[in-house]
Specification:
single chain; 30% helix
Amino acid sequence: MAAGATRVFVSHLAGVAVFDPNGDQVGRVRDVVVMLRVRGRPPRVLGLVVEVASRRQIFLPMTRVTGVESGQVITPGVVNMRRFEQRPTETLVLGELLDRRVRLATDESGSPAETPAAAARSAAGEAPSVEVTVLDVSMTQLPSRRDWEIDKVFVRRGKGGALRRRGETLTVDWSVVSGFSLAEEGQGAENLVATFEQLRPADLANVLHHLSPKRRGEVAAALDDDRLADVLEELPDDDQVEILGKLEEERAADVLEAMDPDDAADLLAELPPEEQERLLTLMRPQDAAGVRRLLSYEERTAGGLMTTEPIVLRPDATVADALARIRHPDLSPALAAQVYVCRPPDDTPTGKYLGLVHFQRLLREPPFTLLASIVDTDLQPLGPDTGLPSVTSFLATYNMISAPVVDDSGSLLGAVTVDDVLDHLLPDDWRETALYDAAEDGPGGAGGRTGVPGGR
């Protein structure tokens, strides 16, 4: 938004920081709440959905917004920290209006109509109109300086009628567009996905969790396999099962392949046996084999907790080889903390497990040093049937963030990481709790509930 202007496109607000008058950050904008009105009247902007500590979403009324400028939102310090719950009369702009197909009223030449009356005739089928896709909407501050409303719609025109070229975009008045209040199947989600492209997987999971089931499925369909896999790993079990169930089976198998094996196994364990087997059959044999091994162990054991894809190197590999593997961007920090030295074969289950080398040790040695000369053989590995309490004690006793899991024959099966252990130490619904209610201590001091002015 230009300096001093009173209009801002809503997609530009996504992720914008919200500050109190003292300059302390309250949270970040995740959506805009509006109330649609009849007869082409511009919707009234009710407020902002703001994500605060621990991913709680609260409602910030526009009457409590004192400034929207320079890439930030300013609000008085007293806000209502109660979790946001959408009401039936409310519409989320980013969550429900973007990517929607609506009708744009036109004149006989195909140019956008200029009056609400023309739009009304088009909506009734009495005047020309063309189908357009909503890319964005803008909101403007009214002269009262307290109220905001949606005034413009940024659209892309579809084929047919007056279209001169595919992909033509234009900004039109809200009053000449109709169809926002109609239910729509297959809305698509490309522009919503683009709006939240920079979010971390855990934050995008939070956005998905708060969408309607229909919209959640559309967003999942628009994400690529790797991105969707990362997001699924951060969602509660019921959301994971719901989203996976809406995908075609071939794509569901592709997404499972892109997930960490232990997370894929946890998700498959929530499905009926026949569906579980169908998806495993569609997966690549190598990926399916690792997941099947994990499913064969009890859930709260080292075998059930581990990942089957740690960093495995041979004893004749060098420090330089190990550091090159650790640099891989897809590795989690826990798995990159150490490498496991084994005789061939290198894939789990490996040949004889020899020991491990910690990341810090690798940084202290010359690049040409062989791993065989610096391998740590003192630490006894875990067996696959080791229970969760013993795994936890092991990590705590030796200050480890991951530990090797070795079978009776001495082959490395995988590695248990501290994040896997935490997943099972926390309550079963901890992800959903974090998405809903975990942030009682929000901005403003102990207890988090800094007051109720501005509540709905």
